[in-house]
Design goal:
about 230 residues; alpha/beta; four-stranded antiparallel β-sheet; 8 helices
């Protein structure tokens, strides 16, 4: 039965063995998760650059770019999605390296599907993911964003952020890691027609940066993707 708490969770499965990829995808979809697959590490990073995921299941033994390298790159980008590593090797050194690179859990092949699904549920609960895939709170450096209470604070002191700025921030968090165009923001946050010519988005992005960035002119979190829009790195 499709569980309501799983409905919006988006999982990227990085596995080059067709049979294993099918097994994982089929069972995850039966549980109600939205699944995207990638056969290589390079393709996985492309997918992560194009859309946001709530979790990644990552095989270490991939052709070309290894799972270790993928894990390292994902964390280097500042992405905090849970990563469950799969491997046919059970050596302690591999496990230690994987965890040191930022993996959240480690499963050795062969494994029971029900055990893996239980680990997926545990990691999603640990991340406090809601139906829209957005955690209840985030840290951007020394700025804490509490979505449930609609509070943005630095060192415990609330920041004066307008309702529109907060809704823009909430939208960017829901699409964290993705490139979001100005037209998309105008449509989804402001409700404007994308043909409207306005500097509204740029103005509000500048205001938001003044709150969440230590150096707004050289942003670390809310970055501009020239010619495309913006990306929030969390």
């Amino acid at each position: 039965m499709k569980g309501d708490d799983n409905a919006a969770a988006r999982i990227l499965v990085v596995e080059d063995e067709p049979e294993m990829q099918f097994l994982l995808g089929e069972n995850l979809e039966v549980e109600g998760y939205e699944v995207t697959t990638a056969e290589t590490g390079e393709r996985a990073l492309d997918e992560i650059g194009e859309q946001a995921f709530d979790m990644m299941i990552l095989d270490l033994m991939l052709p070309g770019m290894s799972g270790f390298a993928v894990c390292r790159e994902v964390r280097a980008r500042g992405l905090r999605l849970p990563i469950i590593v799969l491997t046919a090797r059970s050596s302690e050194s591999d496990r230690v390296v994987g965890l040191d690179l930022g993996a959240d859990d480690y499963v050795t092949k062969p494994f029971g599907v029900q055990e893996l699904l239980a680990r997926v549920r545990a990691q999603l609960r640990r991340g406090e993911a809601g139906r829209d895939g957005v955690a209840k709170s985030f840290l951007l450096g020394d700025v804490r964003i509490d979505l449930s209470r609609r509070i943005v604070s630095r060192h415990g002191r609330p920041l004066e952020i307008s309702t529109r700025e907060f809704e823009l921030l909430r939208y960017l968090l829901a699409h964290r890691g993705e490139v979001v165009s100005r037209e998309q923001l105008l449509r989804d946050v402001w409700g404007y027609s994308p043909v409207v010519v306005t500097r509204t988005v740029d103005t509000f992005v500048a205001k938001l940066r003044s709150h969440i960035e230590r150096t707004p002119h050289d942003p670390q979190f809310l970055v501009t993707v020239h010619g495309s829009g913006y990306r929030l790195m969390v």
